[in-house]
Amino acid sequence: MDILAIESSCDETAAAVVRDGRQILSNVIHTQVAEHGLYGGVVPEIASRRHVEMIVQVADTALAEAHHSVSSVDAVAVTAAPGLIGALLVGVNFAKSLAFAAGKPLIPVHHLRGHLAANYLAHPDLTPPFLGLVVSGGHSHIVEVLDYTELRVVGRTRDDAAGECFDKAARAMGLPYPGGVSIDRVSPGGDPSAFSLPIPHAEGYDFSFSGLKTAVVNLLHTAEQKGENVSVPDLAASLSHRVAGMLVSHTAAAARDLGYTKIVVAGGVSANSVLRTQLDECCRREGWTLCLPPLSLCGDNAAMIGAQAFYEMEAGHTAPLSLNACATMEISASF
Questions:
Q1: How far apart are the first and last CA of the chain?
Q2: Which tens digits make up the pLDDT trace of 114-135?
């Protein structure tokens, strides 16, 4: 089954054609990073306008590279939640139009389910059940993936997401957007023990990153008021190791308690080099299997949406043309 997938939840306009949830036939992404970098973060109105301008071109290119037309694919899939509502609506309405015109099934996909599904493309033998860690700019979840379309959240952030912590701390350090990428670029040159950053507490397997972000901002403000210089590489390294340590320790605790030996990591923050190293060390020590997406599939893309769409289609999760976008939705919920 070949599925045309559309992704427009934030600042990437993307389209892909994916076969049977496992093989990428095409994967086209138009990023707006340079433009939003002028403002230090994503401007929702600008993102929506750029999606409108680029979505036809991106979809045409994806179809051409896969040697397909809209009439020859088997279904049309689209990210319908969560995300920036204006950005989502561009993709949803475009996908609805294609599905209607070509007489194809319409498959709504949850963005975070898509991130996990990126690993189905990278690891052909991966099957549920497994424990998933989804970490991005807007979300930090520990999820039991009981089956392809049956998921249960066992841990989540109580305030800021890990990616948001990186982005806001990076801005305070004077690093360019996207902050997580900038921190990962400079932290290898720093000393991770240079600053003793707090470890915020939350119940169970939950996370809290707001206090950590505030500690970094306050440290920088205090140094500025005293006329002292702060080593950005040292602070970036200290922050990276603290965030990664929290993510790994909570995930490992959940895996031990719930009996999982297969750990799957996804989302933009899964590209962080410190997190990848610490996860690898933890899983080797415990004798667990670790699945990480390649860097090309860590960020937002449509191939991951097409991968998850295959399993949603198999479960009968299609949508009528009255489908609407949702800015927020639990990963465990169905459309």
A1: 21
A2: 999 999 999 999 999 999 999 9
